[in-house]
Known about the structure:
The complex is a heterodimer.
Chain A: H1 4-34, H2 37-41, H3 51-75, H4 79-109, H5 131-146, H6 153-176, H7 189-204, H8 211-216, H9 220-248, H10 254-307, E1 311-316, E2 321-324, H11 326-332, H12 336-340, H13 351-366, E3 368-376, E4 382-394, E5 397-406, H14 408-471, H15 477-508, E6 514-516, H16 518-530, E7 538-542, E8 548-550, H17 552-569, E9 576-585, E10 588-595, H18 627-637, E11 642-646, E12 652-656
Parallel strand pairs in A: 7-9
Antiparallel strand pairs in A: 1-2, 1-5, 3-4, 4-5, 6-8, 9-10, 10-12, 11-12
Chain B: E1 10-14, H1 18-30, E2 37-40, H2 43-51, E3 60-65, H3 74-83, E4 92-96, H4 101-109, E5 114-117, H5 122-139
Parallel strand pairs in B: 1-2, 1-3, 3-4, 4-5
Helix pairs in contact in B: 1-5, 2-3
Amino acid sequence: MASPIPYVRSLMIAGFGGSLAVAAGVAVWIGWVTGNTTLRQVRADWVSMVPMTATAFVLSGAALLAITVAMSQRREGEPVAAHFWRRTAMVLALFVVVIGVRRLLYYWQGWPSPIDMLGFDPGDRPGRMAPLTALGFSFAGVALGVTARRRFYQSAQWLAALVIFIGWIGLTRYAYGGDSTGVFFRMAMHTAVLFAVLGIGIFYARPDGGFIVIWNGDTAGGVLVRRLFPAALVVPVAVGWLRLEGQRAGWYGTETGLTIFAMSNVLIFAALAWHTGSQLHLEDIRRREAEQTVRVEKDFSHAVIDSLPGVFYLYDRNGKFLRWNKNFEQVTGYGAAEIAAMHPLDFFTGEDKALIASRIGEVFATGASEAEADFVSRDGTRTPYFFTGMTILLDGQTCLVGVGIDITARKRAEGKVQELNTQLEQRVADRTAQLEAANKELEAFSYSVSHDLRAPLRAVDGFSQALGEDYGGQLPEEGRHYLATIRSETQRMGQLIDDLLTFSRLSRTSLDRLPTDIDGLVRSLTKSMAAEFPGRALDIRIGELPPCEADMALLKQVWINLLSNALKYTRRRERTVIEIGSRAEAGVTVYYVKDNGAGFDMRYADKLFGVFQRLHRAEDYEGTGVGLAIVQRIIHRHGGRVWAESTVDQGATFYFTLKPDHPV
Amino acid sequence: MNDASPDIAEILLVEDNPHDLALTQRALKKARLANNLHVCRDGEEALNFLFGEGSRPGQLRVVLLDLKLPKVDGLEVLRRLKSDVRTRAIPVVMLTSSREQRDVIESYNLGVNSYIVKPVNFEGFAAAVEHLGMYWLLVNQSPKQGT
């Protein structure tokens, strides 16, 4: 099929030929009306075109124009208009045929046909349409009548070739100068030219078929036709003319002239054939090489497609499979002929069908998409697949090309991961339940400790007291001292139990971090604690204490323990100095409590925060050894650190932070 | 206030531990408050005394209630006391060893009037008993008692 531009250009050439025929016919008519011999016969010594011939050319030209219009309307999808113009062309062509055939019948059977001059007086000249002209119009008329019909256009082109040939005969006669023997070939100069124009126009009126396709084609045939046709038309005529002129000049006789004529033709055509042949030969080799390349490329792509680990598919907008690989047949279990008749959606069922349909639509709309779906084979086996799709333009048609990969293993792994996750969650839940149960047990334990362990102590203390009150008089001094010891130790044990309970509760209670006003807390604590020691000289200096996020109740316990320690270990000083403050270290606030009390030996600093660990004798400074352990646990639960610096008899400083040094 | 003299006031002490009972009685005796004391040894007995045949719970001026009791525990006794119109107005004081926060909260939710943790130290214990006896019997103004 010819590409669009040559098609339109061909119709334009045909239309131009038709217009030229109409214009020339009208011009000759004007010549006859005005008596202008140039328009009628070109040169005074040449024959004139009779009015009937001019009329026939106007009709033929008009028919050619109508065909051109019909062809372009058909191309633009206007079948009604095309039909009308084709009919018009046929009617006009019929008139041309009638004109030609009537004149031929006159020459052949002697039927009278007196209308050639249409009332014009030719004077001294014979005034009839020449027989060759009549033949030309008969052929041209038939050709014009049928060329618009698909079934007949090739016959029309043969006739058109004859029309051109007839015109060529006329022209050649003018070139060589006619003698009396060739009266059959006599025709007007412009008649000959117009026949050639008309014939060529008929060819160009069918740019979609026949000779013009070859003529315009880039095939070897096209090259051959374009090279040899003009040569075949022109060379023999030109060589013949040269030979005639040479003979007329007396350079050689008839035989020699004919020899020169024949040999020149032989030479020129042999050279032309050689040249064209070698060119076509090279062209052909190139073509074969290109074909070979294409074949290699094709083999390669076939190999690639067949060696793909997944399935490959290529189908058009209607879902017709154009290409697939062996894997596709193996996986689906269908044969090539079956697949060719199937639709892509035939390989899916249920929800997947709708999913794939929408994804195919997406591919054609956006250019690419992908999907996960179960690929269903002939025996109903469902295999999870991952499909890709993208558009590809093949031969002007948008198609979908893609591959599908078996994702069974991946799906299985995903399932496994999910299963493991579920198991893990179950384990965590089990472990949490166990921990919660253990915690509950511990809570119940400490609950009964707090309740049941204290009851006997209370009895011991209470009855010792009662003993002392009711029978103290009967006891010696030493006995009363023993009783006092029993009571003080009992109370100490009560204190130990309380401290231990507090300590163990610290791990269980939840941490409520809220913005806490440390400054206010410390000021109220120091005030109430100092009030307990009215006789002591206390110098409590409070520096800057920025607020922080902490559990208020627990933090209060920390300050109480640290401050009461500071007060306890400074009680032998004449003047107690306690400094409370803070400093920033690497973005973390470090709070401290510094006293001028007894201090401790730094060698035992690691024992300072242990439960029941004491660095002083109970006679010197009373205590259960739990206070600093409580402090440490609270600080650790806040994510902070606590540490101390001291020199014996030089006082001690306790530092703590309430969040990690390097916040995560 | 006609019948509000300390002599006719009644104290109900619910206590299972005999030593704590003896010490509490001793402390009340010392404060000269033991004359109108009635003792129950478990929760069930207390409920019988309060709601049983011929009971006159309206006479009670204060109930001293231990938390951990055999059969019916102190919280249940408290709940029954505070949900009955006849006994709702009687002040109840929890006298217990438990410092557990949830016990304190639960008791107050049920409408306890006071919550005292028994100290190990007997002087502290005796002082606490004396103070609360005095307070509820002498200082506190109760609603007018029925006849």
